[in-house]
């Protein structure tokens, strides 16, 4: 930062820039005569990329030299990374999300600092140049890629970047997103069934729920007499549970339907206290 005019304390004000390769003893110096100057460029074609230098800046005027600033370390321009990340892995989290992780490039294989990573993701039927790009910052070595198509094959690749540019890409890895959830449509007397379904039922007066899973078009439930039952049906798959159907109320069945009479009625009611109910199912895809 330049020194304000009221602090220059005389004419002929300027700056002295001193610098040396990090770890050496002798300082190189140059004079910047303008009091408004705020930068100095040292050019050396043989200077390796990302070379550390110690730098300090002093001041002078017609009366002599003033004090120097504290020493700081600066670096020459860096090159983009020259090695790709390794051990790239990808796994499906849901029908729309995948997680990708990787290991940093091997140390000392690039001439600069890695500022982050760029993840590219493209569907199998898309061109790589149109890939979705996600950038991480710092030493983060995993990220989530969202808003993908369900049950689709994707390719993912990772590369490091810094201020000079982006390095080479890792080998692409493949991952298939999970199947999307199915949406329940109806309960009917006859239809076809494609996904796996869950039949959830409970007493109307209880909170605990029993579950039967099936991939058939019908299911039998054995329910006691004299109890109201609430039934719901919903599909499920690797992508998760789908939405439930509307609640179906099965009213209690009167003892009048129990077989037997006279002294044997109580025994008949006990033996016939369970009724079998057949439910037919249908579902439709959310796609």
UniProtKB/TrEMBL annotation:
<dbReference type="GO" id="GO:0005886">
    <property type="term" value="C:plasma membrane"/>
</dbReference>
<keyword id="KW-1003">Cell membrane</keyword>
<dbReference type="GO" id="GO:0098632">
    <property type="term" value="F:cell-cell adhesion mediator activity"/>
</dbReference>
<dbReference type="InterPro" id="IPR003961">
    <property type="entry name" value="FN3_dom"/>
</dbReference>
<dbReference type="InterPro" id="IPR036116">
    <property type="entry name" value="FN3_sf"/>
</dbReference>
<keyword id="KW-0732">Signal</keyword>
<dbReference type="GO" id="GO:0030424">
    <property type="term" value="C:axon"/>
</dbReference>
<feature type="domain" description="Fibronectin type-III">
    <location>
        <begin position="84"/>
        <end position="180"/>
    </location>
</feature>
<dbReference type="Pfam" id="PF00041">
    <property type="entry name" value="fn3"/>
</dbReference>
<keyword id="KW-0449">Lipoprotein</keyword>
<keyword id="KW-0677">Repeat</keyword>
<protein>
    <submittedName>
        <fullName>CNTN4 protein</fullName>
    </submittedName>
</protein>
<dbReference type="InterPro" id="IPR013783">
    <property type="entry name" value="Ig-like_fold"/>
</dbReference>
<keyword id="KW-0472">Membrane</keyword>
<feature type="domain" description="Fibronectin type-III">
    <location>
        <begin position="1"/>
        <end position="79"/>
    </location>
</feature>
<dbReference type="GO" id="GO:0007420">
    <property type="term" value="P:brain development"/>
</dbReference>
<dbReference type="GO" id="GO:0007411">
    <property type="term" value="P:axon guidance"/>
</dbReference>
<keyword id="KW-0130">Cell adhesion</keyword>
<keyword id="KW-0325">Glycoprotein</keyword>
<keyword id="KW-1015">Disulfide bond</keyword>
């Amino acid at each position: 930062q330049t020194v304000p005019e009221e602090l220059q304390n005389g004419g002929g004000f300027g700056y002295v820039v001193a610098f040396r390769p990090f770890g050496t003893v002798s300082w190189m110096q140059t004079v910047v005569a303008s009091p408004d100057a705020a930068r100095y460029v040292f050019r050396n074609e043989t200077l390796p990329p990302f070379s550390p230098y110690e730098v300090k800046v002093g001041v002078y005027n017609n009366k002599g030299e003033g004090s120097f600033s504290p020493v700081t370390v600066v670096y020459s321009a860096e090159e983009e990374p020259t090695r790709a990340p390794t051990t790239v892995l990808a796994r499906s989290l849901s029908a729309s999300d995948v997680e990708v992780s990787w290991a940093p490039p091997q140390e000392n294989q690039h001439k600069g600092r890695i500022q982050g990573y760029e993840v590219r993701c493209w569907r199998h039927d898309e061109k790589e140049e149109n890939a979705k790009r996600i950038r991480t910052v710092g030493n983060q070595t995993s990220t989530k890629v969202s808003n993908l198509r369900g049950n689709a094959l994707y390719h993912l690749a990772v590369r490091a970047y810094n201020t000079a540019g982006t390095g080479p890409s890792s080998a692409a890895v493949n991952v298939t997103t999970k199947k999307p959830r199915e949406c329940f449509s109806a309960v009917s007397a006859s239809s076809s069934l494609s996904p796996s379904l869950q039949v959830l039922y409970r007493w109307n007066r209880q909170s605990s729920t029993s579950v039967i899973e099936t991939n058939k078009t019908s299911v039998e439930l054995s329910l006691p007499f004299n109890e109201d039952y609430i039934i719901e049906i919903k599909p499920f798959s690797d992508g998760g549970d789908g939405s439930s159907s509307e609640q179906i109320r099965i009213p209690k069945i009167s003892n009048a339907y129990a077989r037997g009479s006279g002294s044997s009625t109580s025994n008949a009611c006990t033996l016939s206290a369970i009724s079998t109910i057949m439910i037919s199912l249908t579902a439709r895809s959310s796609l």
